[in-house]
Design brief:
By secondary structure, the protein is of the alpha+beta class. The chain is built from 25 helices and 16 strands.
């Protein structure tokens, strides 16, 4: 008997409208853990190099982790995996909420979509069965209406819906997938990939209890966590403010993007502070499945010209920065409206904000004019313009049709790809943390297989003081010495490699990093005890870290076949400029040469060729992935 997972993968052939179920054994789950590991396993086996991401030959995989759906706090996540429409790399994006546990309770650990439906469909899953349903009548509906319609059709308000919206169906390259209207597979354009397959939604109703090896241990641990997590300052802060507190923290540190990364510190951060947010917007604190942290924000906005549908939730830090400070907008009510538009149409707020900022700076510098924008005068600090452009992007109307392609494609179109305001890596827009203050984050932006991701590894600021709980919590990884956030050293590179693996392990298991060390309260030792109570595996940190490394190396091997090398691991030029303001203003934190040496050292540390980035044959054999090496050689004709 399997514990924690179903042992069943749902395969959906959209070309022929056929559904099959594949059964997997314990060995498969111990090797790949779930989530990203399952996804990359199928992706590298089946998707040939150099295909267009919108080709029917691309796969879209939605996969839970082995701990998804357990009663332990923050064990609710699932991953979307495929070849990204934004970057062209093997890519992933994790989401929290409720859909992951519901999919597992409906009978499946993962779904693999192949081909393209000849008309819009949604997939209905319950009681271990799946059915393809017509979705033509959902055309033009917002995410809320789609969720309500499907629940009404299938007869239950308990149904959980993961869907793409108007942006995804219109192939906006940063369209995302939402579940429960406020939880997102946000980055890398998986909503567009879903839309390219004519899949509007996946609806699941769980009726089957997930079996656990030691449910009593899990029950007691969950109760203890709910009672004590606020005793830790990190847990309490997340409960009180969610992520909205980071505007103040990052501004004070000089790491808050402002005016398209040309400034990093606000003169006054109060208008976008966590306290101001709670005063102006906060209606309730919302949580994910089985999680008492409740870091999500439910908002109410009644006394404003910006009417906001509260079911779409409130903006979090990345959105406040991308659609706020980086556009020189400090009006939280306008930002809340922009957030609602993105959520209604299923569109990544980070990429949306960055592409608008890029266009504004290009207009400011004379790269484009009103002749290019359809008569619009682009400028920073204009919330009404931002809201207008978001609507145009989602609908691919006028100038919005160009912006829907993302920063990198526009930079090439306008012949400014070599300019410092081209703020993307591998085709994906930068998240809202200036890496001049967090060098490890910068290494992650550059070296992550699928582009810059602020959730790639724990941030440097957690590890500069040996007294911090976060630092003490990672000693089991062999990190014994505190590191300054702005230094590029071999120790920093080694620590990044270990911490990257740690968070990738959590992603594969279906865990949210806010629940577990070093970012959250639960220790790594207790987390592993919980995993063993879920599965009965008697596993350890070594085996789990190897499982995470296995999936990362599959992604790197896939990307190498796509033509990506270490030369693609470059930060935008602006990030090598001296700090514009804040602490160490006027100083050049690191040079391009210093940074590049750090990237080369990273590849040596993780067992990849420092010139090409390709995983070494020895590393793949060590991980039990000799088949990946053989597949690569076969496809390259070696």
């Amino acid at each position: 008997m399997s514990y924690g997972y179903r042992g069943k993968i749902l395969h959906v052939d959209l070309n022929n409208r056929k559904i099959e179920v594949e059964e997997k054994d314990d060995t498969f789950y111990r090797a790949y853990l779930g989530g990203r590991g399952i996804g990359y396993h199928y992706l590298i086996k089946e998707v040939s190099p150099r295909i267009d991401p919108f080709s029917p030959d691309n796969l879209l995989i939605l996969a839970t982790g082995v701990m998804t759906g357990s009663p332990i706090a923050a064990s609710c996540r699932f991953a979307a995996i495929g070849k990204s429409p934004l970057t062209g790399t093997a890519a992933e994006s994790e989401a929290a909420g409720f859909f992951g546990p519901e999919l597992k309770m409906a009978g499946f650990d993962a779904i693999v979509f192949r081909g393209r439906a000849d008309q819009p469909i949604y997939l209905w899953i319950t009681e271990g069965k799946a059915e393809i349903k017509d979705a033509s009548h959902l055309a033009g509906q917002g995410a809320r209406e789609v969720e309500d319609t499907i629940r009404q059709e299938m007869g239950s308000k308990r149904i959980r819906v993961a869907q793409t919206g108007l942006a995804g169906m219109n192939l906006v390259r940063f369209g995302n997938i939402t579940n429960n209207l406020g939880h997102f597979n946000g980055r890398n354009g998986f909503g567009a990939l879903m839309g390219s397959k004519n899949v509007r939604a996946v609806a699941a109703l769980g009726t089957e209890k997930i079996e656990f090896f030691d449910p009593e241990f899990l029950r007691k641990t969950a109760q203890d966590y709910a009672r004590t997590f606020k005793d830790n300052p990190q847990g309490k802060t997340l409960f009180v403010y969610g992520t909205t507190i980071f505007c103040e923290i990052l501004s004070e540190a000089g790491a808050l993007p402002i005016n398209n990364f040309r400034r990093t510190k606000l003169d006054d951060s109060k208008p976008v502070s966590g306290d101001t947010y709670n005063e102006l917007l906060l209606k309730e604190r919302k949580g994910c499945y089985s999680c008492p942290i409740r870091c999500k924000r439910g908002i109410a906005l009644e006394d404003s010209k910006y009417g906001v549908d509260s079911r779409y939730g409130g903006p979090e830090y990345e959105t406040i920065a991308a659609l706020g400070t980086n556009l020189n907008i400090l009006d939280l009510k306008a930002i809340a409206k922009a957030n609602e538009i993105c959520n209604r149409y299923c569109m990544d707020t980070i990429s949306a904000g960055l592409v608008i900022a890029f266009a504004c700076e290009c207009f400011e510098k004379g790269v484009i004019t009103k002749a290019d924008t359809g008569g619009l005068e682009l400028r920073f600090g204009d919330p009404d313009l931002m809201i207008q452009l978001l609507e145009m992007i989602a609908k691919r109307e006028g100038f919005g049709d160009l912006l829907a392609e993302g920063v990198t494609r526009l930079a090439h179109r306008w012949k400014v790809s070599d300019q410092p305001y081209h703020l993307a890596v591998k085709g994906m827009e930068l998240p809202m943390h200036d890496p001049r203050v967090k060098v490890g984050v910068g290494i992650g932006y550059a070296a992550c297989p699928y582009g810059p991701d602020h959730m790639n590894a724990p941030h440097d600021t957690l590890f500069f003081d040996e007294k911090f709980y976060s630092f003490q919590s990672v000693k089991p990884l062999g990190i014994y010495k505190a590191m300054h956030p702005t230094q590029i050293t071999n120790e920093k590179v080694r620590a990044y490699a270990l911490l990257d693996n740690l968070w990738k392990m959590m992603d594969a298991l279906g865990l949210c990093v806010f629940g577990f060390a070093p970012r959250g309260v639960m220790s790594l030792d207790l987390m592993i005890q919980c995993l063993n109570a879920v599965t009965g595996w008697n596993t350890n940190l070594f085996e789990l870290m190897k499982g995470a490394e296995r999936s990362t190396m599959m992604a790197r091997a896939f990307n190498n076949l796509e033509g990506f090398t270490i030369k693609d691991d470059q930060l935008p030029r602006r990030l090598f400029d001296p700090k514009p303001d804040g602490p160490r203003a006027g100083e050049k934190i690191f040079t391009e040469e210093e940074f590049q040496k750090g990237i080369e050292m990273l590849y040596e540390v993780i067992g990849c060729d420092p010139e090409t980035g390709r995983p070494s044959r020895g590393k793949l054999i060590e991980l039990g992935l000799e088949w990946v090496d053989e597949l690569g050689r076969e496809r390259q004709g070696v």
